[in-house]
């Protein structure tokens, strides 16, 4: 057992955990943030994607202890209070989810994808960069549309802020 | 109609919780005092269980209980059942072996359940499970479907000689033989419908709980049909009477058929909860899902089509071996029989059809319904046959189909079904136009200049959905009726709760069902809640599969709404002092014809509960009505999908250049959701045709038991899809709905294989058409062989 501290969705948390505790288990079981899901055991499906220090990672492949002192954002922390993040809004508007299980990871990966590729990211790039996230329901058609729309909206929000 | 009524692409009301991480899936639930179960599974495909030594495991930290098949037997827990009795052509009932939830005496596939270890934490349960020592006497397995029925093969169950569960048939053999004897042209093909693993993104999970105070059980489970689970757990497994057994299927992360069935793990968790006196939770990891979720498809078929000199189809003949795996799963027996052969008429006038199907045991995971269930297999047979026939006759494949389309309805096929309505040519015309089929020659020439092979393929599919008229399926061997139930509860303020026996696990029922209510009662969908997935709330239901929830589930709601409106009309009549026959109800307002009296729906609801304005010996207070709806017929969604591909002959890589889908689903409640269903179905169909394959080696080891080995469709494997609709309203239900959930998965494999075979110039191509398979096929192309 060891003690770990990190900032999760803006709050500092300190817990004593088994040293083999994965970040996803820490989030789901110790913090009860169950929006981050587990869909596989080989780091392939991306249902567990969260942001650590602003970058998307698969929380099933990180030890909780490796996140000491880091800043973690999960799907529960993406919206600004009652105002949804533009990517959340885009997923709803474009019917980019059906069963909803892959959705948290898909949205977190999408936000990172746009941060790296800019608000004008094209379909080809979106499809290529979604390689690490599997959806079984949508055939990706509407996810790709939603990410393009969410990217543009993220661009406008940033522009408005500047 | 309201802005949120039938036909509006209303954004989904359930989405908010999913996009904010507030969904409640089974694994998100923790119960007080919860313990964790881990299953010890067989590493062998076929073995005798000599001894299970739990002595070391029992002493491991945190262990609360370890149980085997003997413990279940001692408690008289019944085995898992198959709910559809098929009879062989000689009249004998199918020959099924027992299916204990934990193995007794023998294990029959890799992943078969040997023991369960329950401990304080998941890690402790896993550690202890490693210490369970099982002494196996390994037997030769029977893995190869094609050889399984031969003499001398290992026997999976003693009850089924030659591993044959049934030798079933449908149709008129003599008429078919006579038609073939007269045929001017016969097309024959051999097909393998590859084995698939459903892979809903949420792995199966269960929490069993026993309340010692009340003496009742609760099971939280990833189910498409919690009421059927309760029925089976109660009546067949003997866990508890139904009134002491609550089954809750909360948010469920996809099903595609695989969560219809009542599995070993769920049965064991609920039973064990009482044994250990603690809630017992189990969540599959992905490897367990690959090993023990029911698989799909897995047919080997020879099929023939007979035609006259004008290219009119005379008859169809098919012989299929269907792999059922090591045990019969809940509906396994029906999938390759009554969900398959009755669709072999496709969209065509075929005077005579005969189909033989052998259901075969092998030492592999059980095989049952997976999106489409029997109908994709039938469509693959029919649409490959007609495509190949057209090519052999030198006829355009679209024209060949049009020449043979059924054009008048109702149409009785030679294989049970009576198609109620359709306009197949309308879908074909629209698809040809959208796909720019007129210029395919030019595009092929342009590809050829680049050294690429371009091909186009059709699939004019039909499916039988809206499953199903209870009496009809009963006569075919179903153990249950396939109606649906609904209850509409109007609250005194005019808000509405709808309790439905359907279950939503991605389909968007919370939105579409509310749209129906909004449409009929003239109230906004924000005032409507859809309640499903809890047997303590909803009395009874048959669940969601077979594209039935619109056609059957919503029809039940519609019937209950009729009763609500009829009663509210009476109440309004008394309140307004207008005769009932002169009360109109439009856009949520009751009005007295020829008067200026009117009452909003909410006001009438309040008056129904206040009960001051009517004689309660004549009208009961309150406003709540229920209905059971049993469909009159199956529904018959149909459509045309056109795939256009470009194959790189140097690498075998196939690029899908465009995908056109024109479907007739009858009346649409929410076009946005319907299109989403089509997209997802096509992706699964493309997955089957190009990427996915469940592979067992000769020893029965599953080689594709992770996402590293089983190729799931990813975003960059797929194109965007061009989707459109034509509409013939279904006359068999009050809403005109046909169902849309499975169409894409049914249509897509044939369209894609037809396109790739068109590109490479010959028909010998197996699914999945991976780059390696396509490259090898290109090397065997007649043009290539001739050149060499």
Structure overview:
The complex is a heterodimer of chains A (162) and B (788). In chain A, 36% of the residues lie in helices and 15% in strands. The mean pLDDT of chain A is 97. In chain A, a hairpin with a 2-residue loop joins strand 1 and strand 2. The termini of chain A are far apart. Chain A is of the alpha+beta class and 162 residues long. Chain B has 788 residues and is α+β, with helices and mostly antiparallel strands. Chain B has three domains: 197 residues, Aldehyde oxidase/xanthine dehydrogenase, a/b hammerhead (Aldehyde Oxidoreductase, domain 3), CATH 3.90.1170; 327 residues, Aldehyde Oxidoreductase, domain 4 (2-Layer Sandwich); 147 residues, Aldehyde Oxidoreductase, domain 4 (2-Layer Sandwich). Chain B is built from 20 helices and 28 strands. In chain B, helix 9 runs parallel beside helix 18, helix 14 runs parallel beside helix 15 and helix 17 crosses helix 18. The chains are: A alpha+beta (162), B alpha+beta (788). At the A-B interface, helix 2, helix 3, helix 4 and helix 5 of A face helix 1 and helix 17 of B.
Keyword list:
heterodimer, A: 162 residues, alpha+beta, Ubiquitin-like (UB roll), DNA polymerase, domain 1, 5-stranded mixed β-sheet, 5 helices, 5 strands, 36% helix, B: 788 residues, Aldehyde Oxidoreductase, domain 3, Aldehyde Oxidoreductase, domain 4, 3 domains, 20 helices, 28 strands, 23% strand, globular
CATH fold name of the largest domain in chain B? Aldehyde Oxidoreductase, domain 4
> How is the CATH topology of the largest domain in chain A named?
Ubiquitin-like (UB roll)
* Radius of gyration of chain B using CA atoms only: 28 Å
Unreliable spans of chain A are: none
Question: CATH homologous superfamily of the largest domain in chain A - what is it?
Answer: Beta-grasp domain
Largest interface, Cβ cutoff 8 Å: A-B, 56 and 57 residues
Average of per-residue pLDDT values of chain B: 97
**What is the assigned CATH homologous superfamily of the largest domain in chain B?**
Aldehyde oxidase/xanthine dehydrogenase, molybdopterin binding domain
Tell me which CATH architecture of the largest domain in chain B applies here: 2-Layer Sandwich
What is the oligomer described by this structure?
Answer: heterodimer
Helix amount of chain B, in percent?
A: 25-40%
Number of strands of chain A: 5
Instruction: Report the strand count of chain B.
Output: 28
Q: How would a crystallographer describe the biggest sheet of chain A? A: 5 strands, mixed
The topology string of helices and strands of chain A comes to: EEHEEEHHHH
CATH architectural designation of the largest domain in chain A: Roll
**Shape call of chain A:** globular
Walk across the major sheet of chain B and give the strand order.
3-5-1-12-9-10-11
Structural class assignment of chain B: alpha+beta
CATH class of the largest domain in chain A: Alpha Beta
- Quote the distance from N terminus to C terminus of chain A: 46 Å
